[in-house]
Amino acid sequence: MRFAVRISVSVVGLIALIAIGATTATAHDGKKHPTPNPESASGEATSGAKKDFGIKIGGVFSLIDHLGNPQTDRDYHGGYLLVFFGYADCESICPVGLKRMTDAVDVLGEAGDTITPLLITVDPKRDSPAVLAAEVARIHPRLVCLTGTEAALVSARKAYNVKVKAVEGEWGKDAVLAHGSFVYLIGKRGEFLTLLPPVFGADQMAKTIREYLDAPKS
Question: pTM of the full predicted structure?
Fold first, then answer.
């Protein structure tokens, strides 16, 4: 396991950075990468109004969960989703993003019961259902991890405008992968609501999410 050399910023990431209005730099292996500044971002990100990022985000997927069961986007309609793209062997942004989004669900208490935290792998050759099940046991009991065929995962990434690139090693064996780092909040009808940068702490992320929930805000 090695630290990712860099985190790529997808089209969605670039638009989000503009919409949020500020960036700061975080370093991995001595290189700097743009990520949102939570202090300057909070005023924009915590508004309950749905954001228009200028492109369609989210949509249909047909994948397999960490228990080997088929799952589609429609299986989650009626509740909210927090969607994150990453992989089990990632030691850079994935542990941060996954921990903060699952902690945010816990911070929300009963309101968090309506939310499913979801990891969609970008590394299906290594992330078998068994590998992903171990991630669920390690991170959070309510986390759902999805894998599938390469074609199905490419389709899911395309729906969320997520780009993936091997920056070190051989793809499918020991590659370090650069990938999008945002958490996507998806509504009860499968509609995109907002982006959450992983630099938000759990409390800030929960505060932002709460603005979109059909639940008491106290």
Answer: 0.72
